[in-house]
Amino acid sequence: MQSATRSVPLPLRILGTGEYRPSRRIESTQFDQRWGKPEGWTRRHVGIDHRCFAGPDETASRMAAAAARDALARAGVAADELDAVVSVAGVMEQAIPCTAVLVHRELGLAGSGIPAFDVNATCLGFLVALDLVAAAMAAGRYRRVLLVAGEIASAGLDGSDEDTAALFGDGGAAVVLEAAAPGDDSALLATHMETFSEGAEFCRVRAGGTRLRVADDPAAFLAASRFEMSGRATYRLAAQKLPGFMRGLFQRAGVSVGDLACMIPHQASVKALDHLQRALRLPSGTLVRILETNGNQMAASIPLALHHAIETGRLRRGDLFAMVGSGAGLSFAGAVLRY
């Protein structure tokens, strides 16, 4: 268990954020019709009105690149002024090369030599990459870095599963980071991560790696390519471990929940968001929610909620805020920043 000692703040400024919404808007009433449910059943069950699914030409790298162009424009930064491109998606577009390379090419950087690599921590990839990049910036290795996530959750959903098929959405997110200049109060105050691998089988896609091989049993490989989740087991373990994790995060940052202008969570499910609200006794309006119109967008979820908070004015320069989430494993990650 990591000790929750006070962290040293790292100078970090969020220059710009961006979003890409896929072309196919999927209403929850479509799932009602598919499953023969009364109208409104799916919306009540998953807490989502609609979500977007990617079309055939909307690949993960293209969606990530579109979000990146949006973020770069808002930041006033050209793609060739970046020091690195990092993809944080939970599921890669293909096994090799990494997704960041494909985004790099989409951004016109093919001959630039700018490094491109992936950081995979399922739904927590953005927070883990944020931590690693901030440390690298503090060490002088990078000045400006682009984090991107293009997620196509719909590719792995079982359309007959009433618990998961309507829960997820696709999309692209991007955030441009820069080492904060002297005198700039923007900073990463603390990060914290905990993993409880007793939950390794609670959320999984068994195929796609090297353990299951399509040549050995094509039918078994196809079946294992679908997302599998034990929702109740995941919720029980997460609810048990969340309070201690949050205490550790706040202790490292030297803040309390009352100091925060807002909290930006992974949009895992309406049940998870409601539990977080109750467990932390968050004031009304503190928790940023986009689940109703986006669904669970995996690793794109947190940066998209961050984008929403900035665009709607809920997060302003100088504000203290936290980003938190859980991911398959089971892992928790969080960060406290001054925007």
UniProtKB/TrEMBL annotation:
Pfam assignment, any one: ACP_syn_III_C
Alphabetic keyword roster: Acyltransferase, Transferase
InterPro entries, sorted: ACP_syn_III_C, ACP_syn_III_N, Thiolase-like
SUPFAM superfamilies cross-referenced by the UniProt entry: Thiolase-like
GO biological process: fatty acid biosynthetic process; secondary metabolite biosynthetic process
GO molecular-function terms, A-Z: 3-oxoacyl-[acyl-carrier-protein] synthase activity
Domain of life: Bacteria
Limits of the Beta-ketoacyl-[acyl-carrier-protein] synthase III C-terminal domain: 251-339
Domain Beta-ketoacyl-[acyl-carrier-protein] synthase III N-terminal: 117-195
KW Acyltransferase (keyword) present: yes
Protein name: 3-oxoacyl-ACP synthase
Native organism: Stenotrophomonas panacihumi
Upper classification of the organism: Bacteria, Pseudomonadati, Pseudomonadota, Gammaproteobacteria, Lysobacterales
